[in-house]
Amino acid sequence: KPLNNNDFIFLINPKNKCNSYDGTIRLVYLIKSAIINFNRRLAIRHTWGYEKRFSDVVIRTVFILGIDNTNLNLQRKIEEENYKFGDIVQANFVDNYFNNTLKTVSGLKWAVEYCYNSRFIFFSDDDFYISTKNVLRFIRNPLEYPKYLELPVSTKNNTLNFSKNYQSNKKLQFLDIDLPVDVKLFAGYVFVSSPHRHQTSKWYTSLSEYPYHLWPPYLTAGAYVMSKQALLDLYYGSFYTKYFRFDDIYLGLVANKVGIEPFHSNDFYFYKKDYSVEGYQYVIASHGYNDINELMEVWNNQKAAGNA
Hints:
GO molecular function, one term: hexosyltransferase activity
Mean pLDDT: 91
Structural class: alpha/beta
CATH class: Alpha Beta
GO cellular component, one term: Golgi membrane
Distance between the termini: 45 Å
Membrane topology: Single-pass type II membrane protein
Number of strands: 13
EC number: 2.4.1.-
Number of helices: 9
Protein name: Hexosyltransferase
């Protein structure tokens, strides 16, 4: 019997965002954004979230928001924003830090119900720099990224291999330039850590909430990517996994339950990586871009260098 109904109502829903395209959408960005962050959303639309960045790759970008019942004026502004851009998904939960799990699960639900023709889903917070170019390179060959990019072109097509189910099945599939459709990729920066038992901690977790001394491996919540098959397993697994207020740990618990092993990449930075053009060549995501001018400057620099 399910523990959660996941019965979110989408108050604003760009239903045709994905199904207006007949083929497969390569990449969907689901960006968890706080209601008031209008400027961050605008900056993302003009930088890494720009859907027409590559003429030969179909990309969609949406922002996941909750509600603020205390401010009707703010709600009106959100509706105007969506009228203009058509990329807001707003679900009926109160938008605050401890409801990030609800924001994440409502994002999973929206992707399953309205973006079924997508191949990869990338969840991000709205304070990240992301290189779409590197995301696309990573999802072709996660095991060998970024090493495979430095091989001579003649050998590249022979080296892209990824096990069909890399956590248990040793059989490697040789691929031209893609992963198998049924691969369960759930990738980002993997943490293995213990619950905080100090009552003064922001992340305090009581023994009654979680009695074990280690969390299952989990991806930091700011930026991670999943394949369609992983999306389906995680979404349906979330019905049977009690909600937990830390969204990254919650998804780790769900992944553990459905048998998906999070895949680690050092190119997802949960902190702000010091910027240099060369240093960001293979960066997939870096946290800490609250300043939209800095985000736009870094992204434009990296785009000019061929890295974004």
